[in-house]
Amino acid sequence: MAEWIDRILYPHPDVDQVYADRPLVPNKVCPQCASTEVARYQIANHLGPRITLTCQECLHVIAVERPSTADSWPPFRAVAYDWPASPAERASRTQLDSGDTPAG
Q: Mean pLDDT, the chain, as a whole number?
């Protein structure tokens, strides 16, 4: 079976409560509280799906990054998710970032 099919077909959970694992990152220290309880896990962000590196003691967000294909997040990923932006989209992003408005 194709590898991508595992991303969209999920069996019904066999447990009453569904939870997400937050695996600890070895040798990582929180710059805020010096704790070693730093976890890397998936989040749904206003910018889209992201992977966060967060201290589990003080909840300080150390890093937020775009997920790679190996992260399997989001489970439903658009075909064009990793494609580069078109020239028109890059131009509109530049215009939005600079605060200019189109002449109309």
A: 81
Domain ranges of the chain: 3-10+19-98
Q: Which residue has the tokens 């997920």?
A: 67
- Tell me the per-residue pLDDT of 27-57, one tens digit each, with 9 for 90 and over: 999 999 999 999 999 998 888 889 999 999 9
Q: Please choose, from the candidates 72, 62, 37, 65, the residue with its C-alpha nearest in 3D space to the C-alpha of residue 51.
A: 65
C-beta neighbour count of 81 within 10 angstroms: 13
pLDDT at 103 over 70: no
* Cβ(53)–Cβ(38) below 8 Å: yes
34 CB neighbour count, 10 Å cutoff: 10
Q: For residue 52, count other CB atoms closer than 10 A to its CB.
A: 16
Residue 63's DSSP bridge partners are 53
Reported pTM: 0.62
